Amino acid sequence: MPDRVLIANRGEIAVRVARTLAARGIESVAVFSPEDAGAPHARACDHAVALPADPARSPYLDVQRLVAVAVEQGCDAVHPGYGFLAERADAAQAFVDAGVTWIGPPPAAIDLLGDKIRSKETAAAAGVPVVPGLEGADVDERAVVAFADEAGLPLLLKATAGGGGKGMRRVDDRDAIPSAVDAARREAQAAFGRGELLVERLVKPARHVEVQVAVDGHGGAWAIGERECSLQRRHQKVLEEAPAACLTDAERTAFHDAAKQLAVAAGYRNLGTVEFLLDVSGAANEDGTRPFYFLEMNARLQVEHPVTELVHGLDLVALQLRIADGEPLALGEDDPAARRAGTAERDPGPPAAVGHAIEARITAERIAAGPDGPRFLPAVGPVLDYTEPTGPGVRVDSGIERGTVVTTAFDPMLMKVIAHGRDRPQALARLDRALAGLVLLGVETNAGFLRRLLHRDEVVADASTTTLLEELLAEPDAGAGLAGPPAEDRERALAALAVDRHRRAAGSAGPGAFATPDAWRIGAAGRVLLELQDPDDDRVDVLVGVGPGGLEVTVGDRTAPAADPGARTAVDGPWTWVHDAGGTWSFRDVPEVAGGPGAVAGGLLAPLPGVVLAVRAAVGDAVTAGQSLVVVESMKMELDVAAPHDGTVTALDVAVGDHVARGQVLAAVEEQA
User: Residues 425-428: contacts with CB within 8 Å, 24+ apart?
Assistant: First the structure.
């Protein structure tokens, strides 16, 4: 085993890796950027090294600097986590060349599997089914049109390099092929430095099923169960679970065998995940199993690895350490004598799955109303109050704490909440309770959205597909139900806010009859009007008064339900945050003076903090409603700020590269008479 390991990552995965190292008596070294000074992952390690600021790129991507840190700190191994350097063959090779063990697959395997064309060819040669399609640098719109005429629509365009949904376009209309090819190629070139595309027939409806594999250096290969990850938005997983209850025993065996075949054929070693699409259209093979197709192999530890750990009773990071140290899989983790002696019986395989586990990714996101359904926008701010959920079967992998400042500098995922139960219904119930018990004030998250998703009939019935969530969000009623809570829950939260305001006012008023904060006047108890706005800037009027039965709260023309006595509140400038049994909320007082510096009639405001990527108009231009004027990037997400109506651009206050705050005036359009 290594003596000292550099963790070349940040956030929750760095904390999680440090936990395993500490449990095994291995020293850990953290690195941190200027924004992460004092962060939980830096304190979770035995040593922490500051990385210098780099305006051109993230310090966590500076391979030469990280290799130097490993050497200077006397590290004999490095764990890359996921993201950043985890799937960069050049990074793995640089550490190996410096004499530092890479806790992951060999550089050659990373390089092979990072190329979708070569990995697909390897899978096909190994007898693993692949989706019919076209690939290569010569794939242009004419070739795609010809393939569409032969294979039919819809099609999926994918960048041959990288992942995460970048360079990916679904095509449903033959006439849209030229523009889709151009857009996918541009995005791939910008994201990965390569514009080659792979074109496949879109498998729909389908389920996303992936297999966790482990391969040692002695010919041993395990399939450590599988995970179901069909609930996705913009090709990003939202909920993951293990095992995949949708599979028959025969299908499960076929998935596991295919994953091991590919891993061995690719010269793989250590842990990895082979992703497949299961065709649930009703098609069937001769043996009655449903067709499935290779999607890609992720050459790293997966974000959703905790569900596999919980159902199989394994520490997958510890397993990575063992394989990197040259141990065979067949030597049990609980048999140190056998490991020292180098003796092993026939490989018994991994522990069988027990129960069911589900993971929810908690991200810093604001769910805003949009003309085409809910929009998920990056959220930022200081963590004012934070309590992790507890309970039977509940696990939290987190990289934040009270006082953490969430910015747009990094990926929006803050933590993962995982629940394990004896079966899927119990795991669902435990996850719902855990999400209800998560208190995070100061930064908007998707926790409430995930709770509402868990209660959808399709999710309860385990009837998810890869397109289900996008379809629900696009449907007006379903989308509204997922994006926002019931009105009664909102009113109860406003009642809690009113109680908090009343308590604060009473505490500051001092003793005496005239100190009662109820707008008292002769003849009757008065009422105080709270003029508030929600995060979408929609106005909410709340009347608060003290009546015979105590505090009385009216929201609009409705009497609010009693506040949750367990509600927690926090104040950050003009914003008041509330967490109660119905979720987490934030409201601010309506600004007394509208406008201010830069405010203009018809002003378009930045919906999120970020950097201006493009300015697509100039003062004096005639524009139409919906026309994109400014593009803002935040947390790897691009958002168009469009003209609200036909008219003329009368002001343009930003340029490409400018950093903007949420609510900042970007431009103004005078409506056409």
Answer: 426/355, 426/356, 426/393, 427/241, 427/355, 427/356, 427/357, 427/358, 427/393, 428/358, 428/454, 428/459, 428/460
Whether residue 380 contacts residue 325, with contact meaning beta carbons closer than 8 Å, is answered with: no
Beta strands in 121-238 (DSSP E): 133-136, 155-159, 169-171, 197-201, 206-215, 221-228, 232-233, 236-237
Distance in angstroms (rounded) separating the CA atoms of residues 501 and 7: 45
Mean pLDDT (the chain) is 89
In order of their start, the domains of the chain are 4-103 (3.40.50.20), 132-202 (3.30.1490.20), 206-354 (3.30.470.20), 356-460 (3.30.470.20), 488-589 (2.30.29), 603-671 (2.40.50.100)
Cα separation of 427 and 572, whole Å?
35
CA distance 174 to 18: 51
60-65: Cβ within 8 A, 24+ apart: 60/8, 60/9, 60/10, 60/31, 60/33, 60/84, 60/85, 61/85, 63/88, 63/90, 63/91, 63/94, 64/94
**Is it the case that residue 642 has pLDDT exceeding 50?**
yes
- Report CA-CA distances (Å) from 603 to 518, 650, 663, 665: 37, 9, 10, 6
Question: What pairing do the DSSP bridges indicate for beta strands 27-32 and 47-50?
Answer: parallel
Cβ-proximal residues to 68 (8 Å cutoff; 6+ apart), any chain: none
Token pair belonging to 406: 């969430």
Q: Could you tell me if 43 and 61 are in contact, meaning their C-beta atoms sit under 8 angstroms apart? A: no
Residue 320 is encoded by which pair of tokens?
């990575």
Tell me the per-residue pLDDT of 190-224, one tens digit each, with 9 for 90 and over: 767 778 888 888 898 999 999 999 999 999 999 99
Strand partners, 199: 134, 157
Q: How far apart are CA 195 and CA 373, in angstroms?
A: 31
Q: What are phi and psi of 376, to 5 degrees?
A: -105, 110
Alpha carbons 166 and 116: distance in angstroms, whole number: 13
pTM: 0.86
Expressed in angstroms, the distance from the first to the final Cα of the chain is 75
Residue with tokens 């899978």, as numbered in its chain: 123
Phi and psi angles of residue 536, each rounded to the nearest 5 degrees, phi first: -90, 5
- Given a contact cutoff of 8 angstroms between Cβ atoms, the answer to whether 123 and 135 are in contact is no
Q: Check: CB of residue 665 under 8 Å from CB of residue 603.
A: yes
Other beta carbons within 10 angstroms of residue 264's beta carbon come to 15
Q: In angstroms, rounded to a whole number, what is the distance separating the alpha carbons of residues 88 and 521?
A: 71
